[in-house]
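Example record for the data management plan.
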Amino acid sequence: MLHITKPLAFIDLETTGVNIGSDRIVEIAIVKILPDGSKSVKRKIINPEMEIPKAVIDVHGITNEMVKDAPTFAQVARELETNA
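Corresponding structural encoding:
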């Protein structure tokens, strides 16, 4: 059993590729474990404002159709920061 005294967050990103200089986030998931053992989970699909290559879609399954009406990272960043 994990004993913690402060919240512990795990962050998982799905992106348009592996180049940190040019690729963008398409999904962010945050699992937060609290000292009392409870947890919260947040998952957001993000519009990367660029095409997701087919090879990348084959890896994570997130398509251009799925992100076309989603908010951009800039639109959800403050929400994720304050509510994560």
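Summary line stored alongside the record: The chain has one domain: 8-83.
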